[in-house]
TrEMBL record:
Keywords: Methyltransferase, S-adenosyl-L-methionine, Transferase. GO terms for biological process: methylation. This is 23S rRNA (Uracil(1939)-C(5))-methyltransferase RlmD. InterPro entries: MeTrfase_TrmA_AS (IPR030390), MeTrfase_TrmA_CS (IPR030391), NA-bd_OB-fold (IPR012340), SAM-dependent_MTases_sf (IPR029063), TRAM_dom (IPR002792), U5_MeTrfase_fam (IPR010280). CDD domains: AdoMet_MTases. Residues 7-65 form the TRAM domain. Signal peptide: none annotated. NCBIfam families: rumA. It is an enzyme of class 2 (transferase). GO terms for molecular function: methyltransferase activity. Its EC number is 2.1.1.190.
Length: 459
């Protein structure tokens, strides 16, 4: 028997009431049980919607006009919010954003992990959810009059939306980008053109230390030569005395990856510094360092609380990066072993340990799923294992290695609720019990949410 046709047609305009939100923040409304996903729609609203795509079991719409407005709808402070792909939620009150993120985690726990009994706390938010990012990497384009422009890409495209300010960036980052763009334009430095693979300046990247106010500027070019580099550096230093480092990165490839392999310090220091809590960090152009230090402190404090360290424990930190979580743990643990696949990150982690005079943290290059079984064979049995994997979650072999080590606690920090729920299911089936999940809003105005949770052996 043939399935009934969808009750809507492409290009049809309909009246729709939104009941829910997707994990990306789109409104969900139903026509005779058939769901339509509509960006910028909010639950409780009724709106005129144009149907733009019809699939067998669901469709997509475009918001034309809101007839009945939610109390949670706010005016986005950014002029290009509806064109730019950087943020998704500026039209939504901050309290609704925090609720949406908690629900996203609860849904993943229920549908993917089958762990609906595990408490998911309210999302830890920011007092001021703007101007929080300490790193900007922004593509450079060229206007018809030859002047340079900078801006993020339009959604699902590589068209640069020309913008002067970004309301989630540290204001200093904004000013630095604007200055580099203005000076480079004045000096006649051409922007890189993706289609022809010609031109020079691809990206401007700025990193700032929130606590120290240090600034590092990274200029990413297609060419090995950066024209007028001395004049550019002189003007920047004159305008901004806080600039500690100007770096040139060469990326000659036709690629979406921002940074190339070759990096040279043109002027100043190889690193800038920042602190999170009592721990100081050296940050290089390629360091993975959390972009929101205010919330990182809250996230790491939670991880430390869940690790429940009393001073005599041995801890393994898988995916340790430049040692950010490891060194937080080392403040309370007897010994911390960090493992990370990126050699440069391990070099930075060792430097950060020396910088903080912490001799109870050791760092190793390699894949955690290979190193940990080797450690176990050497007799290393940790009391606590901490993992903070990339979005794809933990490798199956790593989860097995964690279970084989039988720690008293596992602390899992995650940037993806779906893979977190999947991995927690494996750990639960392996004899551990998930105690609680704490969402933390590291990226206000966007769909992303971080979580920290802990597990103990089932009694």
């Amino acid at each position: 028997m043939a399935k009934p046709k969808p009750p809507v047609q492409k290009n049809e305009t309909i009246k729709l009431t939104f009941e829910d939100l997707t994990h990306e923040g789109s409104g969900v409304g139903k026509v005779d049980g058939y769901p339509l996903f509509v960006p910028y729609g909010l639950p409780g609203e009724t709106a005129q919607v144009k149907v733009v795509k019809v699939k067998k079991n669901f469709g997509f719409g475009k918001l034309l006009e809101v007839d009945k407005t939610s109390e949670d709808r706010v005016e986005p402070p950014c002029d290009v919010f509806y064109q730019c792909g950087g943020c998704q939620l500026q039209h939504m009150s901050y309290s609704m954003q925090l609720d949406m993120k908690r629900n996203q985690v609860k849904n993943a726990m229920k549908k993917i992990g089958h762990l609906e009994h595990v408490p998911v706390h309210e999302t830890i938010g920011m007092d001021d959810p703007w101007r929080y990012r300490n790193k900007i990497q922004i593509p450079v384009g060229q206007k018809e009059d030859g002047q340079l422009m900078t801006g993020f890409y339009q959604k699902r495209s590589h068209n640069i939306i020309d913008m002067d300010t970004c309301v989630i960036q540290d204001e200093m980052n904004d000013r630095m980008v604007e200055s580099v763009r203005r000076i480079a334009s004045h000096l006649g430095i051409d922007a890189y053109d993706e289609e022809s693979h010609r031109g020079v300046l691809r990206h401007i990247m700025v990193r700032t230390g929130q606590a120290t106010k240090d600034i590092m500027i990274i200029l990413v070019t297609r060419t090995k030569k950066l024209p007028h580099k001395d004049e550019l550096i002189d003007e920047l230093r004159e305008t901004f005395p806080n600039v500690k480092s100007v770096v040139h990165n060469v990326n000659p490839n036709k690629t979406n990856i921002i940074l190339g392999k070759e990096t040279t310090v043109l002027w100043g220091d190889e690193y800038i510094y920042d602190t999170i809590g009592d721990v100081k960090f050296m940050i290089s152009p390629k360091s993975f360092y959390q972009v929101n230090p205010t919330q990182t402190k809250k996230l790491y404090d939670q991880a430390l609380q869940y690790a429940d360290l009393r001073g005599g424990e041995t801890v393994i930190d898988a995916y340790c990066g430049i040692g950010t979580i490891s060194l937080f743990l080392a403040q309370k643990a007897k010994k911390v072993y960090g493992v990370e696949i990126v050699p440069e990150a391990v070099t930075d982690a060792k430097k950060n340990a020396r910088l903080n005079k912490m001799d109870n943290a050791e760092f190793y290059v390699g894949q955690a799923e290979e190193i940990m079984p080797w450690w176990r064979n050497q007799g290393l049995l940790p009391d606590v294992i901490v993992v903070d994997p990339p979005r794809k979650g933990c490798d199956e072999e790593l989860l097995k290695a964690m279970l084989d080590m039988e720690p008293e606690r596992i602390v899992y920090v995650s940037c993806n609720p779906s893979t977190l729920a999947r991995d927690l299911r494996v750990l639960e089936d392996g004899g551990y019990e998930t105690k609680v999940v704490q969402p933390v809003d590291m990226f206000p105005q966007t769909e992303h949410v971080e979580c920290v949770t802990y597990l103990t052996p089932k009694s």
